[in-house]
Amino acid sequence: MTVPPNSSVPGPGWYPDPAGSGRLQWWNGTAWTGQFSAPHFQSPQQRLVEPRRRISDRTPVYNAYVWTIVALPLVPLIMLMLWNPVLRVRTVGARQVQTLDPASIFTVPYFLLVASGFLVYGVAALLAYLDWDKLRKDGVVRPFHWAWVFLSRELYVIGRSVIVHEVAPRRGLAPVWATIGVTVLAVVLVGLKMSALVATLANQAASIQAASM
Hints:
Blueprint: E1 13-16, E2 24-27, E3 32-37, H1 64-71, H2 74-82, E4 88-92, E5 97-101, H3 108-137, H4 153-167, H5 174-212
Antiparallel strand pairs: 1-2, 2-3, 4-5
């Protein structure tokens, strides 16, 4: 260690290595000993995650936003029930051959059915955000993020309900049961509708072919 003239010699201790290694070297009061120690760096303080605390029993955990999200699948389901395509024939070629027109199934209810799917997707995202914001204002710490609705409405409803049930025991799971009910209803009705459509279209096709003979 270089000591300026007319100054006291530092006492024993760990000092920065004069060779510039970035480590600490032990100074015994008269000379360097060659003992090194890595410099001590204070680790950055870890960010504490705020625990989810329980909310008051009087705080509402349901709202119109989440119930509308649960009911939204009924909109395209209603459009599907209204879709009853009728097969038509068209004349093609120079020989005026009559054949089934596949475009005849694309009726107004069909396009409403397709449009309702996109509309429901966008409305669900908006309602999920409003529901998420409402839960935060009501005191729910870190509610299930609304952006999960882009993957699935059912996923958002389940995740939202689990967290709400965590901060409000004995409450919060009703939307899950309602979602299960809507899903079962949709599966049953879609199955019945598809069976009816296939049978109807098959009968229409057979009638058209019989008439053309």
